[in-house]
Design goal:
The protein has 324 residues and is an alpha+beta fold. Among the domains are: 37-88, no CATH class; 90-175, Ku70, Chain: A, Domain 2 (Beta Barrel). The protein has helices spanning 82-88, 126-139, 193-205, 218-232, 257-313; strands spanning 11-17, 20-26, 37-41, 66-73, 76-80, 97-103, 112-118, 141-149, 152-161, 164-170. Strands 6-8-9-10-7 form a five-stranded antiparallel beta sheet. Strands 3-4-5 form a three-stranded antiparallel beta sheet. A hairpin with a 2-residue loop joins strand 8 and strand 9 (152-161). The radius of gyration is 47 Å and the shape is extended. With LigD forms a non-homologous end joining (NHEJ) DNA repair enzyme, which repairs dsDNA breaks with reduced fidelity. Binds linear dsDNA with 5'- and 3'- overhangs but not closed circular dsDNA nor ssDNA. Recruits and stimulates the ligase activity of LigD. Homodimer. Interacts with LigD. Residues 58-187 form the Ku domain.
Length: 324
Amino acid sequence: MPAPTSSRTLWKGAISFGLVHIPVTLHSATAENRMKFNLLNKSTMTRVGNQQVDKSSGEAMPREEIVKGFEVEKDQFVVLTPDEIKAALPKSTQTISIEAFVDRDAVPAVFFHKPYYVSPGGKGGQKPFALLRETLARTGKVGIARVVISTKQHLAALIPQDQGLVLNLLRWSDEVRDVAGLAWPGEDVGVSAAELKMAEQLVEAMAGEWQPDLFHDEFREKLMELVEQKQCEGGVRQVAPLPGEEVPAASAEVIDLTELLRRSLKGNAAAAPAAAPAAKKSAAAKREEAANDDAAPVRKAAARKTGTTARASVKPATPRRKNG
């Protein structure tokens, strides 16, 4: 069963080719119809934000206190456990299971969702791959298959393209909106044979090969040209740092790093000859001082011994007798 019709106008404009101008409006052609879970407080059943904050109390919620609930009615939830959700996941078979072959034009454009290139795996798969691709191309058929990608089951169409195959994921039928209620022309709106002939002639005159490289996003290109022009003209402005990330103010004098290195090398070269003798002298002086310090006790002992010997070698004077 198709999804309900969306009558809301998303875009209003026209289709134009040659001198033909057809006003049109755009409406959503698809509807997301997947299971969407809300995070809830396990105890109070209040909603928990994406940042795991209880929206009622504003308090952060521990991960173990958060459960997944599916809203069946307004503010009415059914809670599913991780094991229950895991058990419902489709089993990955790593297989693109073709269930039917249908005419390529039988699948409406609104069903196509996301394409993937398909490539044969190894040398052994080259021939069967080529056989399937050629068969689909000759018969004008596509393979309708089921495939599980990232634990999610998809409906898909296997389509031949050039020398390969494309697996285009399809939308499920309940994701495609109904067209009932849209102001499409009915059978009562007819066109004359002359009008149809002129329209066909115009289409044939504008017919050509599909060359996507010929089409560009002109708006983006013009903006990029403007950006580059302003950049060349010095129109680049420095973004102010965020609080706490202030950058020290640059000096008014711009100094070349190469010049600083050159000055440093010259200064070191000039100071090296004079500094070397001083360093040697200082080292020699330190060695002399250390030697003097080590010899000091010996000198003192020798001095004491010398003094004792000198005193011992000097005989005391003999007192003279007085005559008389």
